[in-house]
Amino acid sequence: MAKKIQDPDFWYSFFLPYVNWHTRTSYRRFEVHGKENVPKDSAVIFGVNHSNTLMDALVLLSSNNVKKVFIARGDIFKNPVIAKILHFLRILPIFRIRNGVAAVRQNDDSLNKAVDVIHDNVDLYLFPEGMHRTKHSLLRLSKGLFHIAVDANKQFGDQKPVYIVPTAIEYGDYFRYRSTAMIQFGQAINVTEFLKSTTEENEAANINILKERLHDEISKLFTYIPDDEDYDAIWEIVKMKNEKRAGGLYKKMLRNRSTVANVLKYREEQPEEAKDLFQKVLDFATERKRQKISVMSTAKRKPLVNSLWKLAVLLVGLPYFAASAIVNLPTWVTTLIIRSKLKDPAFGNTVSFGVRFVLSPLIFIVGTIILFCNLHWPWALLGTVILFFSYRVFVDYCELSRRWISDVRWTFKNQLRKQYEALNINKLF
Fold first, then answer.
1. C-alpha distances out from residue 12 to 123, 203, 285, Å
2. In angstroms, rounded to a whole number, what is the distance separating the alpha carbons of residues 145 and 128?
3. Of 161, 157, 181, 155, whose CA–CA distance to 170 is shortest?
4. For residue 158, which phi and psi values (nearest 5 degrees)?
5. What is the DSSP string of 348-391?
6. Which residues does 238 contact at the CB level (< 8 Å), separation at least 6?
């Protein structure tokens, strides 16, 4: 019997902890919520928003130790070598009509394998939007996920229920490495129960109902903003309102959602005032970005005080940073070169992850050998520990430097600060 994609594989299991560790350490903060919503001993499909290229799959992979299989768009499987690698990584292809009629015919095989995956109680993850997009919003969902769920229910729904679990990933920043990531699993949709109780006999109509329900459920799990002409202004308001407030990622997401709801209510009740405000917010954002001031700085009442403590930390950490920069020169220079050539900046964090994934162990091994060959073992051991954390220190130091410079600029931009205060964001929302 041919080996299934979900069957145990020694090398996959061998590398998985290393991959998950690298993923987790790619973020300063990483939270997972709603695990209790995932049904046990059932056929489960996860429908997830897609906003940050390969990092979405990696973040989901590291969310728990449960076996997973993913489905990705079929055009990345064109190269036979790449296709084998993706299969090793437990990723199945699904093609769209724009890939050609011949390619779409291959979907039957993938769909059958997908049904078999969940039949074996292995979690199946799909991104039903069909493409990534760095926005706090959702595209229309494609039907592939729902065809898998319906086919699975036909084949074994009488033996065990089929569920779709709404899942959302929220990032602190789509483009900055070592930002934050939060996963939330929502209330599972019992497809078997729905198909038993529905009065609609048309399968396509039932799939459309499930599509709308999943769309609505995913949108409740992250900072969802309607993708209309006011999206940019609303997102800017959300950042200005909540960027600096303390608390975990989940609480921040709830505050973001509350702000979005208040802004939408304001737009509905006072459309003209809202239109005027949104334009002023966009004008302010344009000027803020032109002057290279972080939105985090605008949230501070005393930016000079904040800049002083950051400066103290930077000065104390300067020797470690300098050493880390020299040691990790191959990693960050390679990353900068590749990222500078990207057509889609959304792949930036994937590149940062990949370069570090390949080069960090080499740097660590070579550095450890040099340390133990030239120092007494206690000092060599201390140096190894310092080396282990060096790249994260390097990246975080650069980020703190950026924020310090932004705070200093914001301190002396009186005209821009008056423009910010005139928006009256905190009182309005």
1. 16, 38, 46
2. 7
3. 181
4. -75, -15
5. HHHHHHHHHHHHHHHHHHHHHHHHHHHS-HHHHHHHHHHHHTHH
6. 223, 225, 256, 259, 260, 263
Strand pairing partners for 30? 181
Mean pLDDT across the stretch 217-227? 97
What number of CA atoms fall less than 13 Å from residue 270's CA on the CB side?
Answer: 9
C-beta of residue 168 within 8 angstroms of C-beta of residue 177: no
Among 185, 224, 135, 173, which Cα is nearest to 27's? 173
Question: What are the backbone angles phi and psi of residue 291, rounded to the nearest 5°?
Answer: -90, 10
d(CA 89, CA 281): 44
Write the secondary structure of 386-413 as one string of H (helix), E (strand) and C (coil).
HHHCHHHHHHHHHHHHHHHHHHHHHHCC
Q: Quote the crossing angle between the two packed helices 303-327 and 329-340, to the nearest 10°.
A: 110
What does the block give as tokens for 306? 């904040």
Examine the pLDDT at 102 and tell me if it is beyond 90: no
User: At which residue do the structure tokens 């769309």 appear?
Assistant: 215
Q: What is the pLDDT of residues 32-89, one digit of tens each?
A: 999 999 998 899 999 999 999 999 999 999 999 899 999 988 777 878 888 888 888 8
pLDDT in tens, 259-304: 999 999 999 999 999 999 999 999 999 999 999 999 999 988 788 8
Using only the alpha carbons of the chain, give its radius of gyration: 24
Task: Report the distance separating Cα 323 and Cα 393, nearest Å.
Answer: 10
Q: Encoding tokens for residue 99?
A: 């890939």
pTM over 0.70: yes
CA distance 355 to 328: 11
Helix or strand run (H / E) with residue 47: strand 43-48
d(CA 74, CA 68): 18
